[in-house]
Amino acid sequence: MKKTIAGKEVEIDEEGYLVDSPQWDKDVAQEIAKELNIELSDKHWEVIDYLRAQHDEGVEMSIRKVGKSGIVDLKEFYGLFPGGPLKNASKIAGLSRPASCV
Amino acid sequence: MSENEDNKENAGKQPKKVLIVCSKGSLVDVYPSLVMANGALMEGMEAEVFFTFFGLDAVRKATQKKLKMTPVANPAMRLPGSTLPFPNIVGLIPGVSDVATSMMKNTIEKLDIPTTYEFLDMIKAGGGKLWGCKMAMDMFGLTREDLRDDIDGVLTVGEFYSRVGEDTQIIFT
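Structure tokens for the assembled complex are given below, as produced in the milestone run.
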């Protein structure tokens, strides 16, 4: 389905994840974050950049990998993106729903 | 309303909280409890695990790194690389359980799945709670000091049930 986010018409799935990663930009990220009641700090952006870089390399993400990334530990990750850290961080980063069980 | 329509209405709905009972202490029994607890936290749900009977081994300081897998009395345990059942009598040979355990640990490591004790760290980091069962601890002569320092406490079964909150599911493993 289509949705207008930050003045851009983007394609999202039923759960609100962007279907097409190239449609993503920082304004889109800001607006998705706002919907999730998350205000993006520099630390958030570091995590988002990391997730996008890993995605580009074809790495399947898990919260464990984020916890070992050196950017945040798991407790910080949960604190930055409350209500499901990897889900919400992926959504803001314009990526699909994480497929990992860990 | 047909069952199908009912499912449709509930599609995408998750419980708000899960209470998981971990009652067995072999590697293959502990993992499901921890995967489900951690998975719930990852979804933004609350999760608590109640360790009882042999499940206590997973949170005992002395045993948490010594969990094993047993190839005995498990008809779904196959000989490596085949569908032939693993003969129970082979499983009884000293050392075979250790081999099976290390094979499983290798597979788990390759799949980027944490050890059970790292999993418990992850659950705590995600705000999950870990409880010991009072009755089982009394039976085994254990005190709170025998359990991981980050255990949230020791509960009676009644106190455990009191942990039920809004829209909570209890899962027994």
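The beta strands of chain B are 17-22, 46-51, 129-133, 153-155, 168-172. The mean pLDDT of chain B is 91. Further analysis is deferred to the final report.
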